[in-house]
Design a protein that fits this description.
TIM Barrel, 2 domains, 368 residues, alpha/beta, 33% helix, globular
Length: 368
Amino acid sequence: MLIDGHAYTFPPLDAQAGYSSLAEKMRAVQRELGGHHQPVWRVKDRARAENSVLIDPETGEFHKVLWGRDNGRLVWTHDGETYTKQYLPPMLHNLEMPPEVLIAEMDYAGVDMAILHSSPHLGQTNELHRQATVQFPDRLRRLVSLPGAEIPKDVEAAVQEVERQVAAGGVCGYQFPSRYYWDGGYSESWEDGPMRPFWEAVSGLGLPVYFTLQARRSARSNLSNRDSYLEEHRTLGRWIERYPDTKVVITHGLQWLTFLEGDRIELPEEVWEVFESPNCHMQLLFPIQLGGIWEYPFKNAEPTVKECVERIGSNRLIFGSDMPMVGRFCTYRQAIDQYRVHCDFLSGEDRKNILGGTVARLLGLKDS
């Protein structure tokens, strides 16, 4: 069984999508695009610009912009000029990814099942994903996710919502987003303090917990991007020590771009410490981070894939595509073929684990 461990469905990027207002939703979009590595350009002449036309890099303040569309792209106007970046692949001309489109892509690429992830800028998608798993119960599973910064404000309500979503069906895990510090203004780390009652309840549900680890990317942080990311690893390590029986998945893989040295990824020893727990798993998503630098079949990533297999074991590694965003750089089939066809050092058992076996065991599926 070929399982994509990391895919998306979402409503139009410029839709309210479960937020209290469209302005609130577009602030989440502005935060994502303003810190993302995809290039910005001016629409009238395609001249390159910078993320600073969205967010002031010195203060972290958001510029006042007017959102719109141009040729099926999301655009914004700032100081009389209109800009865009190809955050979504050009094929998504209505800025959305309906579940039917994902299923069609899965059929064409030979994918049997996909795990639906969420991200704040794509909307509050629990209900949308529930409907998708009802529509395609044999093809899609979903992760529940709540706005992380809101959880400490009413832990009881947050726990009840997770329990409600689990009871509604199709759930295979809980996803903790990466914006806990950014949106809430918290200085205390997320593994303890006001979050502890929430984690006690979630760990008691027996669900795998998916963590999206990123550098804080905040004007409030005086750490470098690398140090801030490693601090998140240490936070996760403390969380795992407290809940050693809970299965953990690090989404997206490690922050590969942070550790890029020339044409090679050089990982510090510290990143492997969380994997001393046998319950800590990791997704492998190289094209979505490095597709703007390396070409398919991403041969430069192969030493790191091999290192991950040697250090962690393929039985704890999970293929993920980041579909449809991966379409910026390669086809769905090519994202799979990185492991299905290439990486000659992988054994047949390694390929089976990475391309579905590991996830199948996490989900308790028979065909593992």
